[in-house]
Amino acid sequence: MREAQGNTLLEVKNISKTYQSRKRQPVYALREVGFSLQEGRCLGVVGESGCGKSTLCRVIAGIEKPDVGEILYQGEPADHRKIRSSLQMVFQNSMDAVNIHLKAGKILAEPLENFTSLNRNQREQEVERLLELVGLSAEDKAKYPRQFSGGQLQRICIARALAAEPKLLLLDEPLSSLDVSVQAQLLNLLSDLKKELHLTCLLVSHDLEAVYYLADKLLVMYGGAAVEEIEDIRDICALTHPYTRRLLEAGELETESGEAGQKDEGILTEEKREYLAASFREGCVYAGHCPRAERKCFLERPGLVEREAGHRIACHFG
Questions:
Q1: What residues have CB less than 8 Å from 316, skipping those under 6 apart?
Q2: What is the sign, positive or negative, of the torsion defined by CA atoms of 194, 185, 233, 57?
Q3: E-assigned strands of 127-249?
Q4: What is the largest CA-CA distance in the chain?
């Protein structure tokens, strides 16, 4: 059963982020993305590689700065220097996220030194508590990163993030490099920690099944834009955007035939090609692949509007 909605912890308002390619052409990583996240809830952000999920996570964390838009934390403009301990991030590649020359105990002790007033003995005890909290033993503090499996090292990264006692945990593809059985174990761990510590989470993933298990609400992204959002993930079958439907169908195809992503009914007719370049600037980001696309789709970008309670979609046809 999903948790009741609490006070708004995070608001993302019309965030856009553009990079320059080697040919000095603009690369639209984020296009006017906005949403809100309430305390104790988990937002799942899904979409294919390159859709802007990780960039969104990094902007919220303060690692990247948006070109335009605003991030509010507890109703105030986010000052990442002041909220560092309240907002922590778990990265995709655990080995790249740690200093491989430090033992696990030292890795976990660093945020305790930075964000708490604990003395040395208290930090030692807290390190052991954190290890046990994520399903490891106190003896593991003497090991180096290379001595852990991928799943165990990701538990170390989760424990390090929790050391600062954050209110918001950003999870950027934390399961993607692990095998299925380890993914299931970490999903169970994250679910337990979310309930036990009343964590607010943002889970970035391309795995709809994992997101459905952990998240309370869902945001679907394509081409840097948010194309669909539902407040209650149990309404996942009510999603209607052509790209979201394709994602759901790909999940079914992967289960049945192992051919996820092979089915794409979007055909670029001559008329569609005529407006394709314009669509990247001002039209629907999915127009070039959408079987329903018409001239309007290439020339006018649909806003993310509420079509029914708790369901927003960016599509001219609803």
A1: 284, 294, 296, 297, 300, 302
A2: positive
A3: 168-172, 200-205, 217-222, 225-230
A4: 71
Over residues 79-113, the pLDDT tens digits come to 999 999 999 999 999 999 999 999 999 999 999 99
Say if residues 20 and 26 touch (Cβ distance below 8 Å): yes
- Fill in the DSSP letter of residue 100: T
Q: Which residue, chain included where needed, has tokens 């995070």?
A: 10
Name the pLDDT band for 24 (thresholds 50, 70, 90): confident
Band the pLDDT of 1: cuts 50, 70, 90: very low
Number of other residues whose CB lies within 10 A of the CB of residue 71: 18
Sign for the CA dihedral angle at 69, 73, 78, 81 comes to: negative
Domain boundaries, the chain: 1-86+166-235, 98-165, 240-303
Q: What is the mean pLDDT of residues 53-74?
A: 96
CA atoms within 13 A on the CB side of 222: 25
pLDDT band (50, 70, 90) for residue 190: very high
In this structure, which CATH number among 3.65.10.10, 3.40.50.300, 3.40.50.2300, 3.40.50.620 belongs to the domain 1-86+166-235? 3.40.50.300
Q: What is the 3-state secondary structure (H, E, C) of 142-159?
A: HCCHHHCCHHHHHHHHHH
